[in-house]
Amino acid sequence: MDSKSSIKGRGAQRQLNNRFFELSHELRDDFLEYCRVEGEESTSNKTTYSEVFPKTIVNKVTSPDVGMMYSMNPYQGCEHGCIYCYARNSHEYWGLGPGLDFERQILIKKDAPKLLEAFLKKKSWKAETIVLSGNTDCYQPAEKKFEITRKCLEVFLKYKHPVGIITKNALILRDLDLLKELAKDHLISVSISITSLSEDTRRILEPRTACIKKRLETVKILSDNGIPVNVMLAPIIPSINSHEILPLAKAAAEHGASSLGHIVVRLNGAIGDLFKDWIEKTLPDRAEKVLHQIASCHEGQLNDNQFGRRMRGTGKIAQQINDLMELAKHKYFRDKEKVTLNKELHETYKDGQFKLF
Fold first, then answer.
1. Is 177 left (phi over 0), alpha (psi -120 to 50) or beta?
2. What percent of the chain has pLDDT over 70?
């Protein structure tokens, strides 16, 4: 991509209007010409933070193929800017767009720790693992400023409640003290997403994420401290990172990962248009091939919403990816034990301290 025409530090390279709004905005040529003549920027590329006030924070996951029952998200939108991110669509429900809005307008839920505590204290609640980052990364750059995730981990520790974390940011190591305490009672598991061993690929796919070296170091440090780590190769994109499955699995195992998972890319909702625009600007020589191969994994479409097959795909290319993953698991993770979190302690800590009677 021409560096002069690209939007620096962003995955999406254009704004995308909200599908649910009757009205839309566009940058007119006469306005753009005015900005050029006056030496002004037509739009701001700065990240803005806005506080929102949800009534609840824990979400029941009804999709049967996601692998979690409950999730919570301290932030809406994500500055990491991963171009393939399925969560972009959720920004539209907040009245924003899935393109640059998703990366530049971050919604902050400062009440999340208080809402979580109230939820865990409910008499009717029986402990099940709650996953931080079911939608957007809980350790995205905003966390360094607001520390909402850390405060939520303090709540989980206080009530001895199992928690899972999904992230691609080394910032998680800031909270190693809390993670180690949770690990003592088998209350924590972490999934680190690693999509490539190539920094060039990482920079164009995930412009504001931690570098690959940092992520692998994070896997090792967590593992060395008794915290089980799953490495997610997510998503696998044909002709972009599909050739890296075995090297990625080897690196994950060598750094102490206890398990390995993957998802075949699917470009749901508005993501298809964003991805097509991105790849035609970023990898024009490969664009047609990659889009065709993605479609071949989903019955000729860029997306498949059917549970059970949408994350694994169908067809020859998807089968090759899935077979390689099975080979990788057999080769590098054959002797790894399955991690089960402790759901028994919470009931006796429901009031924040151990009950003797």
1. alpha
2. 86
